[in-house]
Amino acid sequence: MGWKSWLQDLTDSLHNNRQKTETDGAGLPWQRLIDQLETHYEAGQWEEALLAGKEALALAKQSAGPDHPDVAATLNNLALICRAQGQLAQAELYLNRALSIWENALGPNHPEVAIALNNLALLCIAKGQYAQAEPVYLRSLAIREQVFGPDHPEVATTLENLASLYRASNRLSNADKLDQRARRIRSGPPASGQA
What we know:
The protein has about 200 residues and is an all-alpha fold. It has helices spanning about 5-20, 25-40, 45-65, 70-85, 90-105, 110-125, 130-150, 155-170, 170-185.
């Protein structure tokens, strides 16, 4: 459940990392390693992806410092790889550290914080901790609504994830409402002249 969402978050994280410039953070060598991580991940080459991620992490720490957002982005990516391999405890360690760095470096309401929260909630679900996942998703949703507005695709992603949680915990009415809202967001505004 939710694998498409965490895969999308990995893709989003990697895309955001690709937009960095050479002078920002860990720079171009780090970006090359992140690109390798993505290539290996998409090919299902977990060990190679993990190795590239660990190299990227070491480079980011060395180049930008241990509390830089590039370190958090790399930790987030490593967490998603670990989750895919069933290494949930390690994934949780990586995500909690990424969350802490992003909150301290970027503020508690930054979109990167919402990504880490979303991934933490997915990890809670993978561990069967549904009650713990809900407040984490709700915080991620609040951040995304505040930053992007209520009708943004990032909001729809969190709504879909929360709906999956509600379905898994047999809260079908709540799930249906969230799914309907997400579908409205994804379908976009009505064409001009339509109500």
